[in-house]
């Protein structure tokens, strides 16, 4: 009989993670059931049915993360991951709304509100998850952003950069999705393309066929890429080799100078903020990225995480392009991003430097985006007024 699941394939780091997280998941699912099921105004069989659904969610939620390791057949692993990630998204919203409901009930004395509010929690969870699924699975919109750099040479006025970030090719984002992104980007005829990390969730052997379309990206001055934290979960050195093979220039704490219409633009890139935890030689270093560069040039840094910005501004960069946050992807995670990152999304100023943080071109984990639309960002550089 063919083996379907092999838990021995689960990496050690996930074993210890599972040992810590699964008991917490059991407690949180128990909390949801305890708060909602007894007051649900439904037929008598709703209680055992609710318990079964919550128990299933408790089992399925971790599978989104673990299926690609423990399910032997690759296609089955991908389908299992999709089910697991959908369960993760439902559980996340159900937990958040249950906690919010309980907070609001502290200020309501009418006991009949308990039943109505319990039903509303379930209804809102299903609604948000459905809309979020549709938002996540459609190809990212083109978002137009204009950034004014006072020292920009006249020849670079109108220079157009397409930024892609956080595509997360993996168990639920495949070749067709990537191809559609590439086709949309090429229609924009940019001067340069910048990819700010988290392109993949898996090995080159497993996903190389799906990322191959990235080699078809077209722009006047080529495509530049920096690593994100998920590249380091997925074999960063192999992926750097693969991206370079596709004709994408990986900037590993280094820079390139672009000659455009007689003017020059410096484009630099750093490894992910946490890269040194995986490969010590890849410690993120904006100072190294700009070292020995020509003086007086407008300088742009590609850095996966916005928290590289403090070091980038100190190093003298004029603009940083980042991703990582997904704009929170869906409520309430957008509320927690500021605990780790200085910026959640959009254009912000830090000292003398602009920072643009993309909401991401794909999604991670649950196929769910609500209140944070994915984006293909078309950035137009302009000089000072009147130039």
UniProtKB/TrEMBL annotation:
Alphabetical list of PANTHER family matching this protein: PHOSPHODIESTERASE YAEI, TRANSMEMBRANE PROTEIN WITH METALLOPHOSPHOESTERASE DOMAIN-RELATED
Gene Ontology CC terms, in alphabetical order: membrane
Source species: Jezberella montanilacus
Protein name: Calcineurin-like phosphoesterase domain-containing protein
Family matches, as CDD domains: MPP_YkuE_C (cd07385)
Pfam families, sorted: Metallophos
Keywords of the record: Hydrolase, Membrane, Metal-binding, Transmembrane, Transmembrane helix
GO MF annotation list: metal ion binding; UDP-2,3-diacylglucosamine hydrolase activity
Residue ranges occupied by any Calcineurin-like phosphoesterase domain in the UniProt entry: 159-327
GO BP term, example: lipid A biosynthetic process
């Amino acid at each position: 009989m063919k083996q379907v699941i092999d838990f021995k394939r689960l990496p050690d780091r996930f074993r210890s993670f599972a040992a810590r997280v699964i008991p917490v998941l059991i407690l949180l699912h128990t909390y949801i059931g305890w708060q909602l099921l007894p007051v649900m105004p439904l037929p008598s069989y709703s209680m055992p049915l609710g318990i079964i659904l919550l128990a299933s969610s408790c089992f399925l939620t971790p599978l989104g993360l673990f299926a690609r390791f423990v399910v032997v057949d690759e296609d089955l692993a991908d389908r299992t991951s999709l089910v697991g990630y959908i369960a993760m998204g439902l559980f996340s919203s159900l937990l958040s709304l249950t906690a919010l409901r309980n907070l609001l009930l502290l200020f309501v004395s009418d006991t009949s509100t308990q039943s109505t509010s319990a039903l509303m929690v379930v209804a809102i969870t299903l609604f948000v998850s459905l809309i979020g699924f549709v938002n996540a699975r459609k190809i990212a919109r083109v978002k137009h952003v204009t950034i004014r750099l006072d020292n920009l040479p006249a020849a670079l006025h109108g220079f157009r950069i397409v930024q892609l970030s956080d595509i997360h090719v993996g168990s639920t984002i495949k070749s067709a999705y990537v191809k559609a992104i590439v086709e949309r980007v090429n229609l924009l005829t940019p001067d340069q393309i910048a990819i700010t990390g988290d392109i993949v969730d898996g090995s080159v052997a497993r996903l190389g066929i799906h990322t191959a379309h990235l080699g078809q990206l077209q722009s006047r001055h080529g495509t530049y890429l920096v690593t994100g934290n998920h590249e380091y979960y997925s074999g960063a050195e192999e992926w750097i080799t693969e991206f370079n093979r596709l004709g994408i220039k990986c900037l590993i704490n280094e820079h390139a100078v672009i000659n455009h219409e007689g003017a020059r633009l410096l484009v630099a890139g750093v490894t992910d903020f946490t890269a040194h935890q995986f490969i010590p030689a890849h410690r993120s270093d904006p100072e190294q990225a700009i070292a020995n560069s020509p003086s007086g040039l407008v300088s742009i840094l590609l850095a996966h995480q916005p928290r590289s910005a403090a070091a980038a501004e100190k190093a003298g960069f004029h603009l940083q392009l980042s991703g990582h946050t997904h704009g929170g992807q869906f409520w309430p995670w957008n509320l927690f991003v500021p605990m780790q990152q200085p910026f959640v999304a959009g254009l912000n100023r830090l000292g003398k430097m602009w920072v643009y943080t993309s909401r991401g071109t794909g999604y991670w984990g649950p196929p769910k985006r609500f209140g944070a639309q994915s984006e293909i960002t078309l950035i137009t550089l302009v000089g000072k007024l009147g130039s």
